[in-house]
Specification:
disordered N terminus; 14 helices; 45% helix; 15% strand; alpha/beta
Protein backbone atom coordinates (compact mmCIF):
# COMPACT_ATOMS: atom_id res chain seq x y z
CA UNK A 1 0.00 0.00 0.00
CA UNK A 2 1.07 3.60 -0.34
CA UNK A 3 2.04 5.12 2.98
CA UNK A 4 0.63 8.62 3.47
CA UNK A 5 3.59 10.94 3.97
CA UNK A 6 3.37 14.69 4.33
CA UNK A 7 6.36 16.88 3.53
CA UNK A 8 6.21 19.95 5.69
CA UNK A 9 8.31 22.22 7.84
CA UNK A 10 7.37 24.30 10.78
CA UNK A 11 3.97 25.83 10.45
CA UNK A 12 0.59 26.24 12.00
CA UNK A 13 -2.35 23.92 12.07
CA UNK A 14 -4.68 24.08 9.08
CA UNK A 15 -7.82 26.16 9.32
CA UNK A 16 -10.56 23.58 9.78
CA UNK A 17 -13.89 23.65 11.57
CA UNK A 18 -13.66 22.68 15.23
CA UNK A 19 -14.76 19.16 16.02
CA UNK A 20 -17.81 18.73 18.19
CA UNK A 21 -17.18 17.58 21.77
CA UNK A 22 -17.72 13.82 22.00
CA UNK A 23 -21.06 12.96 23.57
CA UNK A 24 -20.80 9.28 22.73
CA UNK A 25 -18.13 6.68 22.07
CA UNK A 26 -15.78 8.23 19.52
CA UNK A 27 -12.75 7.16 17.53
CA UNK A 28 -9.34 8.18 18.78
CA UNK A 29 -6.36 9.50 16.83
CA UNK A 30 -3.06 8.89 18.61
CA UNK A 31 -0.29 11.33 17.70
CA UNK A 32 3.28 10.23 18.35
CA UNK A 33 6.39 12.31 17.50
CA UNK A 34 9.37 9.95 17.21
CA UNK A 35 13.05 10.01 16.40
CA UNK A 36 15.79 7.56 17.42
CA UNK A 37 13.14 5.28 18.93
CA UNK A 38 13.96 2.01 17.19
CA UNK A 39 14.36 0.23 20.54
CA UNK A 40 10.92 1.28 21.81
CA UNK A 41 8.73 2.03 18.78
CA UNK A 42 7.24 -1.45 18.33
CA UNK A 43 6.28 -1.60 21.99
CA UNK A 44 4.75 1.89 21.96
CA UNK A 45 2.71 1.41 18.78
CA UNK A 46 1.74 -2.12 19.71
CA UNK A 47 0.38 -0.95 23.05
CA UNK A 48 -1.95 1.42 21.17
CA UNK A 49 -3.10 -0.94 18.44
CA UNK A 50 -3.64 -3.67 21.02
CA UNK A 51 -6.24 -1.62 22.91
CA UNK A 52 -9.65 -3.28 23.02
CA UNK A 53 -11.40 -0.04 22.09
CA UNK A 54 -14.50 -0.25 19.85
CA UNK A 55 -14.55 3.37 18.71
CA UNK A 56 -11.78 3.05 16.14
CA UNK A 57 -8.07 3.83 16.47
CA UNK A 58 -5.68 5.76 14.24
CA UNK A 59 -1.95 6.18 14.95
CA UNK A 60 -0.09 9.09 13.34
CA UNK A 61 3.70 8.80 13.56
CA UNK A 62 5.56 12.08 13.02
CA UNK A 63 9.03 10.79 12.19
CA UNK A 64 12.06 13.02 12.58
CA UNK A 65 15.59 12.50 11.20
CA UNK A 66 17.06 9.56 13.12
CA UNK A 67 20.40 7.87 13.66
CA UNK A 68 18.73 4.46 13.85
CA UNK A 69 16.06 2.51 11.95
CA UNK A 70 13.08 4.49 13.27
CA UNK A 71 11.95 5.78 9.81
CA UNK A 72 12.11 2.33 8.25
CA UNK A 73 10.30 0.69 11.16
CA UNK A 74 7.58 3.35 11.10
CA UNK A 75 6.90 2.80 7.39
CA UNK A 76 6.87 -0.95 7.80
CA UNK A 77 4.23 -0.57 10.51
CA UNK A 78 2.15 1.60 8.20
CA UNK A 79 2.43 -0.94 5.41
CA UNK A 80 1.30 -3.74 7.72
CA UNK A 81 -1.60 -1.91 9.38
CA UNK A 82 -3.83 0.70 7.68
CA UNK A 83 -4.55 2.27 11.06
CA UNK A 84 -0.97 3.62 11.07
CA UNK A 85 0.05 6.61 8.95
CA UNK A 86 3.38 8.40 8.74
CA UNK A 87 4.18 12.08 8.42
CA UNK A 88 7.72 13.36 7.89
CA UNK A 89 8.94 15.84 10.48
CA UNK A 90 12.04 17.35 8.82
CA UNK A 91 13.03 19.50 11.80
CA UNK A 92 12.81 16.59 14.23
CA UNK A 93 11.41 18.95 16.86
CA UNK A 94 8.62 17.65 19.07
CA UNK A 95 6.15 20.56 18.68
CA UNK A 96 6.57 20.52 14.91
CA UNK A 97 5.91 16.79 14.87
CA UNK A 98 2.80 17.14 17.00
CA UNK A 99 1.37 19.89 14.80
CA UNK A 100 2.17 17.95 11.62
CA UNK A 101 0.49 14.87 13.08
CA UNK A 102 -2.59 16.97 13.85
CA UNK A 103 -3.03 17.67 10.12
CA UNK A 104 -3.75 13.97 9.55
CA UNK A 105 -5.98 13.12 12.51
CA UNK A 106 -9.39 11.71 11.59
CA UNK A 107 -11.15 11.55 14.95
CA UNK A 108 -12.62 13.96 17.49
CA UNK A 109 -10.47 12.68 20.34
CA UNK A 110 -6.68 13.04 20.16
CA UNK A 111 -4.30 11.18 22.45
CA UNK A 112 -0.64 11.97 22.72
CA UNK A 113 1.69 9.02 23.29
CA UNK A 114 5.48 9.22 23.49
CA UNK A 115 7.81 6.90 21.63
CA UNK A 116 9.17 5.86 25.05
CA UNK A 117 5.69 5.11 26.38
CA UNK A 118 3.44 2.07 26.53
CA UNK A 119 -0.30 2.10 27.22
CA UNK A 120 -1.76 -0.53 29.57
CA UNK A 121 -4.88 -2.46 28.54
CA UNK A 122 -8.07 -0.42 28.87
CA UNK A 123 -6.27 2.93 28.82
CA UNK A 124 -8.25 4.47 25.96
CA UNK A 125 -11.60 3.25 27.35
CA UNK A 126 -10.81 4.85 30.70
CA UNK A 127 -9.64 8.08 29.08
CA UNK A 128 -12.80 8.52 27.00
CA UNK A 129 -15.03 7.64 29.95
CA UNK A 130 -13.23 10.30 32.01
CA UNK A 131 -13.64 12.90 29.26
CA UNK A 132 -17.38 12.21 29.09
CA UNK A 133 -17.84 12.10 32.86
CA UNK A 134 -15.95 15.32 33.63
CA UNK A 135 -16.50 17.40 30.49
CA UNK A 136 -12.77 18.16 30.54
CA UNK A 137 -10.77 19.41 27.57
CA UNK A 138 -7.85 17.13 28.40
CA UNK A 139 -7.41 14.20 30.75
CA UNK A 140 -4.29 12.35 31.79
CA UNK A 141 -2.72 10.41 34.57
CA UNK A 142 0.52 9.09 35.96
CA UNK A 143 3.80 8.48 34.13
CA UNK A 144 5.19 5.21 35.49
CA UNK A 145 8.95 5.04 34.82
CA UNK A 146 9.95 1.43 34.33
CA UNK A 147 13.53 0.41 33.70
CA UNK A 148 15.03 -2.64 32.09
CA UNK A 149 18.71 -2.22 32.95
CA UNK A 150 20.03 -1.60 36.46
CA UNK A 151 20.68 2.08 35.77
CA UNK A 152 17.26 2.54 34.16
CA UNK A 153 15.66 0.99 37.23
CA UNK A 154 17.57 3.37 39.51
CA UNK A 155 16.51 6.36 37.41
CA UNK A 156 12.93 5.08 37.43
CA UNK A 157 12.95 4.97 41.24
CA UNK A 158 14.27 8.54 41.38
CA UNK A 159 11.75 9.83 38.84
CA UNK A 160 8.81 8.20 40.60
CA UNK A 161 9.56 9.79 43.96
CA UNK A 162 8.69 13.25 45.36
CA UNK A 163 12.36 13.45 46.36
CA UNK A 164 13.29 13.40 42.69
CA UNK A 165 10.44 15.15 40.88
CA UNK A 166 8.64 17.12 43.56
CA UNK A 167 4.92 16.71 44.16
CA UNK A 168 3.61 16.74 40.58
CA UNK A 169 0.65 14.35 40.53
CA UNK A 170 1.46 13.09 37.05
CA UNK A 171 4.80 11.92 38.45
CA UNK A 172 3.93 10.59 41.89
CA UNK A 173 0.14 10.09 41.77
CA UNK A 174 -2.55 11.71 43.88
CA UNK A 175 -6.24 12.45 44.10
CA UNK A 176 -8.41 12.93 41.03
CA UNK A 177 -9.25 16.51 40.10
CA UNK A 178 -8.33 19.57 38.10
CA UNK A 179 -4.62 20.03 37.42
CA UNK A 180 -2.14 22.39 35.79
CA UNK A 181 -0.96 19.70 33.43
CA UNK A 182 -1.20 15.94 32.93
CA UNK A 183 0.75 13.18 31.20
CA UNK A 184 0.63 12.58 28.31
CA UNK A 185 -2.88 13.88 27.50
CA UNK A 186 -6.09 12.70 25.85
CA UNK A 187 -7.77 15.77 24.34
CA UNK A 188 -11.00 16.80 22.79
CA UNK A 189 -9.64 17.74 19.37
CA UNK A 190 -11.59 20.98 19.25
CA UNK A 191 -9.63 22.34 22.21
CA UNK A 192 -6.24 21.79 20.57
CA UNK A 193 -7.51 23.58 17.47
CA UNK A 194 -9.26 26.31 19.45
CA UNK A 195 -6.05 27.44 21.18
CA UNK A 196 -3.89 27.12 18.06
CA UNK A 197 -2.10 23.82 18.57
CA UNK A 198 1.29 23.22 20.13
CA UNK A 199 3.54 26.27 20.31
CA UNK A 200 6.51 25.61 17.97
CA UNK A 201 8.67 27.87 20.14
CA UNK A 202 8.88 25.16 22.82
CA UNK A 203 11.17 22.21 22.24
CA UNK A 204 10.29 21.08 25.76
CA UNK A 205 7.40 21.88 28.11
CA UNK A 206 5.01 22.24 25.17
CA UNK A 207 2.44 20.12 27.03
CA UNK A 208 2.47 22.42 30.06
CA UNK A 209 2.26 25.50 27.86
CA UNK A 210 -0.63 24.09 25.79
CA UNK A 211 -2.52 23.12 28.94
CA UNK A 212 -1.99 26.62 30.30
CA UNK A 213 -3.62 28.13 27.20
CA UNK A 214 -6.47 25.64 27.43
CA UNK A 215 -7.09 26.62 31.05
CA UNK A 216 -6.87 30.33 30.21
CA UNK A 217 -9.51 29.76 27.49
CA UNK A 218 -11.88 28.18 30.00
CA UNK A 219 -11.11 24.50 29.49
CA UNK A 220 -10.53 21.99 32.25
CA UNK A 221 -7.40 19.85 32.50
CA UNK A 222 -8.23 16.78 34.57
CA UNK A 223 -5.94 14.36 36.40
CA UNK A 224 -7.01 10.84 37.27
CA UNK A 225 -4.77 8.17 38.81
CA UNK A 226 -6.77 5.59 36.85
CA UNK A 227 -4.71 6.46 33.75
CA UNK A 228 -1.19 5.09 34.02
CA UNK A 229 1.39 5.05 31.23
CA UNK A 230 4.65 3.12 31.34
CA UNK A 231 7.64 5.29 30.47
CA UNK A 232 11.14 4.06 29.63
CA UNK A 233 13.65 6.39 31.32
CA UNK A 234 17.10 7.25 30.01
CA UNK A 235 19.64 4.46 30.27
CA UNK A 236 22.68 6.41 31.53
CA UNK A 237 23.49 9.32 33.84
CA UNK A 238 24.93 11.24 30.87
CA UNK A 239 21.68 10.94 28.92
CA UNK A 240 19.70 11.80 32.06
CA UNK A 241 21.83 14.92 32.61
CA UNK A 242 21.23 16.09 29.04
CA UNK A 243 17.48 15.50 29.42
CA UNK A 244 17.18 17.42 32.68
CA UNK A 245 19.50 20.24 31.61
CA UNK A 246 17.26 20.84 28.59
CA UNK A 247 14.13 20.58 30.75
CA UNK A 248 15.52 23.23 33.10
CA UNK A 249 16.32 25.51 30.18
CA UNK A 250 12.79 25.30 28.81
CA UNK A 251 11.20 25.77 32.23
CA UNK A 252 13.17 29.04 32.47
CA UNK A 253 11.77 30.05 29.07
CA UNK A 254 8.25 29.18 30.20
CA UNK A 255 8.65 31.13 33.44
CA UNK A 256 9.77 34.27 31.59
CA UNK A 257 6.66 34.18 29.38
CA UNK A 258 4.07 33.04 31.92
CA UNK A 259 4.37 34.43 35.42
CA UNK A 260 2.24 31.66 36.95
CA UNK A 261 4.49 28.95 35.48
CA UNK A 262 6.98 29.16 38.33
CA UNK A 263 6.61 27.92 41.88
CA UNK A 264 8.72 26.62 44.78
CA UNK A 265 8.97 23.17 43.21
CA UNK A 266 10.64 24.63 40.11
CA UNK A 267 12.94 26.95 42.04
CA UNK A 268 14.28 24.19 44.31
CA UNK A 269 16.83 22.75 41.80
CA UNK A 270 18.56 26.05 40.89
CA UNK A 271 18.62 27.14 44.54
CA UNK A 272 20.10 23.78 45.51
CA UNK A 273 22.78 24.06 42.83
CA UNK A 274 23.76 27.57 43.96
CA UNK A 275 24.04 26.47 47.59
CA UNK A 276 26.04 23.33 46.76
CA UNK A 277 28.47 25.03 44.39
CA UNK A 278 28.72 28.15 46.55
CA UNK A 279 29.44 26.05 49.62
CA UNK A 280 32.11 24.04 47.84
CA UNK A 281 33.84 27.13 46.46
CA UNK A 282 33.55 29.06 49.72
CA UNK A 283 34.71 26.35 52.12
CA UNK A 284 38.47 27.01 51.60
CA UNK A 285 37.93 30.55 52.91
CA UNK A 286 35.34 29.71 55.55
CA UNK A 287 35.11 25.99 56.40
CA UNK A 288 31.50 26.08 57.66
CA UNK A 289 30.43 26.64 54.03
CA UNK A 290 31.42 23.03 53.46
CA UNK A 291 28.33 21.95 55.39
CA UNK A 292 26.18 22.86 52.38
CA UNK A 293 27.54 20.38 49.81
CA UNK A 294 28.18 17.77 52.52
CA UNK A 295 24.65 18.11 53.84
CA UNK A 296 23.21 17.77 50.34
CA UNK A 297 25.31 14.68 49.65
CA UNK A 298 24.16 13.05 52.89
CA UNK A 299 20.51 13.94 52.23
CA UNK A 300 20.61 12.52 48.72
CA UNK A 301 22.41 9.37 49.86
CA UNK A 302 20.06 8.68 52.75
CA UNK A 303 16.95 9.67 50.82
CA UNK A 304 17.99 7.69 47.76
CA UNK A 305 18.51 4.51 49.73
CA UNK A 306 15.22 5.04 51.56
CA UNK A 307 13.08 5.40 48.42
CA UNK A 308 14.79 2.37 46.86
CA UNK A 309 13.66 -0.08 49.51
CA UNK A 310 12.75 -3.41 47.95
CA UNK A 311 15.13 -2.90 45.02
CA UNK A 312 18.31 -4.88 44.45
CA UNK A 313 21.54 -3.62 46.01
CA UNK A 314 22.84 -2.70 42.55
CA UNK A 315 19.84 -0.42 42.03
CA UNK A 316 19.89 1.09 45.53
CA UNK A 317 23.51 2.27 45.26
CA UNK A 318 22.73 4.04 41.98
CA UNK A 319 19.63 5.93 43.07
CA UNK A 320 21.50 8.75 44.92
CA UNK A 321 23.55 9.46 41.80
CA UNK A 322 20.36 9.58 39.72
CA UNK A 323 18.75 12.01 42.16
CA UNK A 324 21.78 14.32 42.19
CA UNK A 325 22.02 14.23 38.40
CA UNK A 326 18.35 15.20 38.07
CA UNK A 327 18.51 18.02 40.64
CA UNK A 328 21.79 19.61 39.58
CA UNK A 329 21.33 19.25 35.82
CA UNK A 330 17.83 20.74 35.99
CA UNK A 331 19.15 23.60 38.14
CA UNK A 332 22.06 24.25 35.78
CA UNK A 333 19.76 24.31 32.78
CA UNK A 334 17.40 26.73 34.51
CA UNK A 335 20.23 29.09 35.47
CA UNK A 336 21.89 28.84 32.04
CA UNK A 337 18.69 29.43 30.12
CA UNK A 338 18.35 29.34 26.33
CA UNK A 339 21.25 31.16 24.74
CA UNK A 340 20.64 32.84 21.43
CA UNK A 341 16.87 32.24 21.42
Amino acid sequence: MTVPVLEAGRGSLPSVPAASPPDRLSGISVIMPVRDEADHLAEAVGSVLGQDYPGGIQVVLAVGPSRDDTPRLAREMAELDPRVVVVDNPSGRTPDGLNLAMTLVRHDIVARVDGHGALPPGYLDTAVATLLRTGAANVGGVALPEGRTTMQQAIAVAMGSPLGMGGARFRVGGREGEAETVFPGVFRREWIERVGGFDPAYDRAQDWELNLRIRQAGGVVWFTPDLRVTYRPRSSLTALARQFFATGQWRRRLATQHENALGPRYLAPPVTLVLVVGGALGSPWWPPFGVLPLGYAVAVAVGGVAIAQGQSAAVRVRVPAALATMHLSWGAGFLWGLRGR
